[in-house]
Structures are given as structure tokens and as C-alpha cells.
Write the C-alpha cells for this entry.
Amino acid sequence: DQIVCLAKGGLRVGDILCRIYGKPLAILSASSYGGAENKVRASIKFATHLTMTTEQLGSRILLVDDLVDSGISLQEAIKWLQQYHGEVIEEIRTGVIWYKGNSIFIPDYYVDYLPDNPWIYQPFEHYEKINPAELGQVVGLQPKKKSNTKQG
């Protein structure tokens, strides 16, 4: 009935799957990495609310993320969903692109199984190390000095 993605990594996966299957998307923002280059695992924190355009969450959920590393994020997200929306949820299944072998959690669906624990370099990681001025230089934008209102 509904796809729930973990933000930020699962946003791309959730967006694509909701378009393919024609199901509504709900977003659960979570944070579990920080530190140097966003590669240090910390305790997981979830948003207070689920973001969705439907009146209530569907009864059958596909919870998606980009990868399952330790497994804690998916495990805790399921607990969060059951705690705050358990009265409407009948079933939760999970799906990821990359399933790492050291995970304590086994997803229901995955694209690639990685028996070791490699760091997965994703194309958007570049933007975590760039500031707005550097981005402007990369795409050739110059700062505008005039106002954005039409004169006339």
C-alpha cells in the first residue's frame, strides 16, 4: 500500500520505487552518520513525524534504504513505525540496494549482497564536501547583484 524511505540515503530508492509501482511515498528522516566526511556511525535519531501526503500510513509497508550496513537503522525504523503507526500496519517488508554481510538485519529484498564491508561511494557524496560558492563555480554561475523583481 505504501513505500516508506529512510532519508537521506533511501530518498532516491523510495522516489524511484513509488514511481514504478504507483504507490504513495512517506519519508522518515533519520541520522546515523556524522564526523569526518560523514563516515562515523553514531546513535540513530529519527524525526518526530513521518512526512506523507496520504491521510494515514498504508497497512502494508515497503521500508527502503540505499543500503544495510550494521542493520541498526532498518531495525530501529521498524520499531519506530510500529510504535507510532502500529495500529494501521499489518506488514512491513524491507528493501535495499546493497546488503552488507556484517549486518545484523537481513532485508527482504536487495540488489547486491556484499560479503565484506566496503565503503560504497555514491555519486552524490561529492556534494557533501562542497559549499554553495564552490558549486556555483562548478556549474558556471555568477552571483547576481540585482533584485529578482521585474521592473516595468
In short: The chain has three helices and seven strands. Residues 72-85 form the longest helix (14 residues). Residues 67 and 98 are 5 Å apart (CA to CA). The beta strands are 2-7, 25-34, 40-46, 51-52, 60-68, 91-100, 109-114.
